[in-house]
Specification:
The protein is an alpha+beta fold and 467 residues long. Among the domains are: 157 residues, Four Helix Bundle (Hemerythrin (Met), subunit A) (Up-down Bundle), CATH 1.20.120; 122 residues, PAS domain (Beta-Lactamase, 2-Layer Sandwich), CATH 3.30.450.20. The chain has 19 helices and seven strands. Strands 4-3-7-6-5 form a five-stranded antiparallel β-sheet. Strands 1-2 form a two-stranded antiparallel sheet. Helix 1 crosses helix 3. The longest helix is centred in the middle third of the chain and has 30 residues.
Length: 467
């Protein structure tokens, strides 16, 4: 179905729906001229619906609404027509059409849009070439336009211990912390005397990182498996925005900066907007799309990442009929290596005792393995196994990963190295091309290591010093 917006060309529309030649004169006598085949051919390649609306002395919103209703009637696919109507609204948002006009158009055209439909529309826009960064930029506006319809939908009520229930309980906890912060910054005259208390509250609020990490590593991979990568990538980008504002707020509090109240206002608004998007779009969409098996996979690995402020009081997965808690079972016998022989269990033990984080991405760009050492540098969970590597990184940095992998595949490079400051520790991140004996590319190995103490080494130590 053709996506309708003010910039849609007449020719594109009539090629798809020839019946509109007879329909348009019924809504305005001015369109009787379009029955002239010569005039119609002349206008088809140049005239947009905005121009056609002017010709018919009507608003482009009314014209689009009438066309959409007729297309739905003639094609017998009202859901698809509604989807295209929504896409047209979003395209016009992108082109700068007044928000109030689009709210009215939405009220006339689509009165009961679901969270899943919004997600499908955003995914369609991305698939058709609208960059994810643009979808992110418009995300708040999308929600504003659809808010009335979303507010009328029932909020998910999953059982205690269910991954969505846990995320929603965390949302309530974050709201309590934000209310305490607001009470302090709401009194500018006494703000300076409460910096210590404010710092402690912002540090507590920073635990929201675990909330976002569980979404990114457990929930988003299942969405991607259902063909819905757009919403998760947009949300991940907003997570990163929140992380950046949290970091800025912490720095300002330590410095006693006068702008901290404004930064915290921005932080609270962004987190509350994310809560709204989660509970009115992400969670309902996921509850509709996921099977019980999907939710068990989401649940698996949650404890490895951890929870923000709370611990689930109920083991929901144990209540599911047929759910089995799977423990690692290692085959008997030994694996012949280039040098030596080890059992599967020994291989696993060696890998988990290395003082580094390792993640292996296979030649198909899918995450195949990560090590589970005692002191992880970056959180990982089973949800990423089998996930495309470009979905395992935030949108703002995924192009770097793609460039590294492409240079490894082409043989141009074999190593890429970075180092960052992570909570006061120096962390080195290295990527190595994995090649077989013939030199063919077989994947990429990511190795992360806290090198703070290594960097500080001086002189020699030749004697055992355990004192």
């Amino acid at each position: 179905m053709v996506s309708l917006s003010k910039s849609t060309k007449l020719g594109e529309l009539l090629d798809a729906y020839p019946f509109l030649v007879d329909f348009l004169p019924s809504i305005s006598p001015k369109y009787q001229r379009l029955k002239n085949s010569v005039l119609r051919r002349t206008m088809s390649s140049r005239a947009t619906l905005e121009r056609i609306a002017e010709m018919g002395e009507m608003s482009v919103e009314d014209l689009i609404a009438a066309i959409q209703a007729e297309v739905a009637k003639q094609t017998g696919d009202p859901k698809e027509a509604r989807k295209e109507a929504l896409k047209g609204i979003l395209r016009d948002l992108h082109e700068g059409v007044d928000l109030e006009i689009l709210r009215q158009r939405f009220a006339e055209l689509v009165k009961d849009v679901s969270a899943s439909e919004i997600a499908e529309i955003e995914q369609s826009l991305i698939d058709e070439g609208l960059p994810e960064e643009e979808v992110k930029r418009l995300c708040d506006v999308h929600v504003d336009v659809f808010r009335h319809s979303l507010d009328e939908q029932e909020v998910p009520r999953p059982p205690d211990g269910h991954p969505v229930h846990t995320l929603m309980v965390e949302n309530r906890a974050s709201e309590n912390i934000m209310a305490e912060i607001e009470a302090i910054i709401g009194e500018p005259s006494t703000l300076g005397g409460h910096m210590g208390e404010l710092g402690a509250l912002v540090e507590r609020l920073g635990e929201i990182e675990k909330h976002y990490l569980r979404k990114e590593n457990q929930l988003f991979p299942r969405l991607e498996a259902k063909g819905m990568s757009g919403p998760s990538q947009v949300m991940w980008a907003i997570h990163d925005d929140i992380r950046a504002v949290l970091k800025k707020a912490n720095a300002q509090i330590k410095e006693g900066a006068v702008g901290v109240a404004g930064t915290l206002d921005e932080l609270i608004v962004t987190i509350r907007d994310m809560i709204y998007k989660e509970e009115n779009i992400l969670f309902p969409m996921s509850m509709e799309a996921f099977t019980t098996e999907d939710w068990l996979r989401v649940k698996e690995g949650e404890e490895e990442i951890g929870y923000a402020w709370i611990e689930p009081l109920v083991d929901w997965s144990s209540e599911i009929e047929g759910a089995v808690q799977v423990e690692a079972v290692f085959p008997t016998g030994k694996v012949e290596l280039d040098v030596g022989r080890l059992t599967h269990e020994q291989i696993n033990l060696v890998l988990t005792h290395l003082p580094i984080d390792m993640t292996y991405v296979d030649e198909d760009d899918k995450v195949a393995y990560y090590s589970q050492g005692k002191e992880r540098v970056f959180p990982r969970s089973p949800g990423i196994i089998g996930r495309a590597v470009d979905k395992c990184h935030p949108p703002k940095s995924v192009h770097v990963v793609e460039k590294i992998v492409e240079s490894f595949k082409s043989g141009e490079r074999d190593v890429a190295s970075f180092w960052i400051d992570l909570s006061g520790r120096l962390v080195q991140i290295r990527y190595f091309a994995v090649r077989d004996g013939e030199g063919s590319y077989r994947g990429t190995l990511e190795v992360s290591q806290d090198v703070t103490d290594i960097k500080g080494l001086e002189g020699e130590r030749r004697l055992l010093d355990w004192e």
